[in-house]
Amino acid sequence: MSDKVEELCDDREVALSPTAENHKGGWITFPFILVSTGGLMLGGAGWMTNLMVFLINTYHVQKIDAVQISTLIHAFFNLFPVFAAIIADSFLSSFTVIWIFGFTSLLGTIVLTLSTIISALKPPECPEDSSSCTPNKLQFAVLYAALSLGTVGLGGLRSSISTMGANQFRKKKHQGIFFNWYFITSYMSFVIAQTVFVYIEDNVSFKCGFIICVVANSIGLIAFLSGTRFYSCGNPKGSPFTGLARVLVASVHKRNLKISDHETDGGRYFVGDNEEEHRGPPSSAFKFLNRAAVKMDGDVDADGLIEKPWRICTVQQVEDLKSLIKMIPVWTTGIILLVPIGALLNLTVVQALTMDRHLGKKFQIPPGSMTVVVLFSCTVFIAVIDRLVYPAWKKLAGKRPTALQKIGVGHVITLVGMAVSAVVEYKRRIAAANSEPISVLWLIPPLLFIGVGEAFHYPVTAQFYYQEFPANLKNMATALSAVLIAIALYVASLIIELIRNVTSWLPNNDIDKGRLDYVYWVLFALGLLNYGYFLACANYYKYQNCEKPKNDDDKLH
Question: What number of CA atoms fall less than 13 Å from residue 475's CA on the CB side?
C-alpha cells in the first residue's frame, strides 16, 4: 500500500514540479500554453474569418473572386500544419517552430493593419457600381504579403502547439484533459472572432478590428515565451515519413528480386532489433513492397545494423506503408465530403450580403458571423450524440456504431444540408427578384444540418485516423486530418472556377442574376456520388487497430 502511495506522490510531483532535473513540463505549463493558444488563434482568426467582406468592401474585389481567395487562404491554413509538423520532427523542435511562426503570424497581422492606416497602402474609397477605384499594384502586393505571412504563421504553429502541450504530460489521462481544453480554447477563439471581432470590423472599422488582432497575437506570443523555462522540449527525432519513402525506394531498387510467401522464408527479411517491431515475414498484401525488407549482401552488417538505409527497411516499416495504402480509399471519400461544405460556407457569406440582416431596428448581423452557426451546432450536438444518440443506437441495434457507420451518418446529414441550401437559395433569389429580400435567418437551417453532420463525421474521422495509423505516425494523424480540409477547399475552388467558366450561374458581383441554387444541386449530386463510393469503401475496409464490435461485423449496412 505504501508503495502505491509513494508512486502516486511521485507522479504528482512530476506533474507539479517541472524544475526538478529531467522533469520539466507538467501542469505549471498549462496556463502558459492555453493563454498562448487563445491569443494566437484569436489574433489569426480575427482577420481570417471576415476576410471575404474585407476584400469586397475595402479592396473592391468582385464577390466570387473574393470567395476564391478566401477558399485558397483557408485551404493553405489547413495544409501547412503538416509541413510544420515535419519541420518540427526532422529539423527543429516544436518550441522553435511555435515561436518562429508566432512571430511570422504577428508580422503578417501588423502589415495587414498598416494597410488600413498608412494612406499610400490604403485602397481608395469607391462608390457603388464604380470601376475607377481599383487598388494599385503596391497596395495589392502589401495585401498578399500580409495574407501570406499571416496564413503561414497561423498554420505553422497550429499543430505544433497542440503537440508540444500534450508532450508536457506523461499520463494519457492528463494528455486527454489538455486536448479537451485545447480544442475548447481553439473553438471559442474562432467563435469570438466570428462574432465580436467581425462585429467590430463591420460596424466600427477594419483598422480597429485588426489592431485588436495584433494585441491578441502579441499577448499569445508573450505568454508562450514567458513559460520557456518550464517547458519540456524534446529534440527532433526525424520524420517518420522518411522510413516510408525508404520502403518505396528500396522496393524499386529490388524490383527484379524473386520473393516467396512461405513462412520458412522469414529469415530472409530484416526485422530490426526493436522488440515492438513486426517479427515474422511481411503480409502478402502489396507483395511488391516486401522486397524492401529482403536482406541482400551489404545491406546489414555483422551486428545487425543497417549499412545502406535506402536499400533495406524493416518489416514493420513495410507493414506501416501498407496500412496507409489500405486507408487511401476511405481517406479520399473524406475529401469529397468536405468539398460541398467548403464551398457552401464561403458562398453563404455572399448570400448574407444580399439579404435582410436586421434584428430589430438598429442591429444588423454581420455576414461573416453566419458560419458561426456551424461551430455552435457542431459543439452542442457532439455532446448530444455521445450522450443520447449512441446509447439509443446501442439499445436498438445491440451494439454501438462503428467509426465508419458514424461517418456514414455524417455523410447523409451533410447531403440533406446541401439540398436545404439549394431550396433556401431558390427562395432567396425569387424574393430578390421581387425586391423583397428575405431574412438572413433563412440561412440557419442548412448551416444547422452542416454542423450536425460535422458533429457525426469530423471528430470520429480524427479518432479513426489516429487509431488506424501505424504507431510511429500517431503524431501526424491529426495533422493529416487537416489535409483533408485543405485538399477539399482546393477542389471546391476548382469546381467553382469550372462552373464560372462553363455556365452563367455565378456572376461576379450580382448573384441575383445567377443560379446559385443550381451550384448547390451540383454539389449535392457530387456528394451523393461520393456517398455511394464511401459505402463501397466502408464495406470492404477491414479495421486494423480499432476495437471490433462484439459480433465482429465491421461493415456498414
Answer: 24
Q: Mean pLDDT over residues 304-333, rounded?
A: 81
How many domains does the chain fold into? 3
pLDDT tens digits along 235-272: 666 666 777 888 888 888 888 887 765 544 545 777 76
Provide the 10 A C-beta neighbour count for residue 323.
Answer: 17
Alpha carbon distances (Å) from 14 to 19, 29, 93, 165: 9, 12, 22, 15
**pLDDT per residue over 449-467, tens digit each?**
999 998 888 777 777 776 7
- The region of weakest confidence among 190-199, 304-313, 427-436 is 304-313
Do 515 and 380 lie in a common domain?
Answer: yes
* CB-CB neighbours of 321 under 10 Å: 22
Domain boundary, last residue among 237, 264, 293: 237
DSSP assignment of 193-224 equals IIIIIHHHHHHT-HHHHHHHHHHHHHHHHHHH
The percent of residues above 70 in pLDDT, for the chain, comes to 83
Measured in residues, the chain has a length of 557
- Under 8 Å between Cβ of 303 and 490: no
Task: Return left, alpha or beta for 435; rule: phi > 0 is left, psi -120 to 50 is alpha, else beta.
Answer: left
For residue 66, CA distances in Å to 72, 143, 197, 423 come to 10, 13, 19, 24
pLDDT, mean of residues 48-75? 85
Cell of 480: 493529416
Q: Which domain holds residue 342?
A: 327-548
- Render pLDDT for 461-485 as a digit per residue (tens, 0 to 9): 777 776 777 766 665 666 667 778 8
Q: Which CATH number covers residue 417?
A: 1.20.1250.20
Specify the DSSP class assigned to residue 471: G
CA–CA separation, 48 and 295 (whole Å): 52
Q: Is residue 113 part of a domain?
A: yes
Among residues 278, 295, 321, which one ends one of the domains? Answer: 321
Task: Please give the model's pTM, rounded to 2 decimal places.
Answer: 0.73
Q: Are 239 and 90 in contact (CB under 8 A)?
A: yes
